[in-house]
Write a structure and sequence with these properties.
The protein is mostly helical and about 260 residues long. It has one domain: Ribonucleotide Reductase, subunit A, CATH 1.10.620. It is built from ten helices and two strands. It has helices spanning about 5-15, 30-45, 55-65, 70-95, 105-115, 120-145, 150-175, 180-210, 215-235, 250-255; strands spanning about 1-5, 245. It has a two-stranded parallel ribbon. The longest helix is centred in the last third of the chain and has 32 residues, at about 180-210. The chain is globular. Mean pLDDT is about 90; it is low at about 245-259.
Length: about 260
């Protein structure tokens, strides 16, 4: 089922009010755990702090073209959730007496690619790929330590990411349906190239933390391919043509079916 922008706007407004992290809990991180995860923890924290300026610009152009102002508001709230992740991770880094990083090669590369992009389609598939990788990474980060505070931060992010991917998959489906046969084929090729490059960069940069959480190379790539193929399958699902325009509050509590 494809939900309206108004539905997602209401979902994000509700979800942002939920406090799942108790920052009064003292962080407990052992030296081996710190050594295994610290670089990646700092890098992902930096990646969660974008102001979303370029994404919003693309969303405004797209929303104007299709006449859907609620989409811009939904994207603004989506960005706020990502920034919440950055604040929580940043506060944790502060609590363990470490310095936040201001620059990271992976973040710099991804931001440059994003800043050159004005297409809502490419923004959407790029976010889907990175959010899918975030699901694997934050589960690994959760499992790499026994720290209750860090685990609760990871759980909060994982709950949000499931909704984020559903939100982005639905939007990509809408964009994809506007295309003809050959343009769809070219788009799938482009998605695949972007996917292939991104997951290899993420494994190269964060394999130490992933392995600390029990995710070896084969498992990482298998999980990522599974998530990517689910997105492609979703794009071709004919039954998605039925759209629900009325928000349903029970959805906000149960969470979306993850495609």
């Amino acid at each position: 089922m494809i939900h309206s922008s108004a539905f997602w706007k209401q979902h994000f407004q509700h979800n942002l009010k939920i406090q799942r992290v108790d920052h009064d809990v003292e962080p407990r991180l052992t030296s081996p755990e710190r050594a295994a995860i610290l670089y990646s923890l700092k890098a992902w924290q930096l990646g969660e702090t974008s102001d979303g300026h370029h994404l919003l610009a693309a969303a405004r152009r797209y929303a104007t073209r299709i006449g859907d102002p609620d989409y811009v508001e939904a994207v603004k709230l989506f960005i706020k959730e990502e920034q919440k992740h950055g604040r929580n991770l940043g506060a944790y880094i502060d609590r363990i007496n470490e310095q936040r990083v201001q620059k990271d090669w992976g973040d710099t590369l991804f931001r440059k690619v994003r800043y050159l992009n004005t297409s809502m389609e490419l923004w959407t598939i790029a976010v889907i790929i990175v959010e899918s990788a975030a699901q694997v990474f934050y589960q690994a980060l959760h499992d790499a330590t026994e720290c209750p505070l860090l685990r609760s931060i990871c759980k909060d992010i994982l709950i949000d990411e499931a909704h984020h991917i559903k939100f982005q998959n639905e939007r990509l489906w809408m964009i994809f349906q506007e295309k003809g046969f050959y343009n769809k084929a070219l788009s799938l090729l482009l998605y695949s190239v972007l996917f292939f490059g991104t997951i290899h960069a993420i494994w190269f940069g964060h394999q130490k933390a992933l392995k600390a959480g029990g995710v070896e190379r084969t498992e990482f790539f298998r999980s990522m391919y599974y998530k990517f193929f689910n997105t492609v399958k979703f794009l071709h699902a004919r039954e998605q043509q039925e759209r629900a325009f009325e928000p349903k509050l029970n959805y906000l509590f149960q969470g979306p079916s993850h495609q």
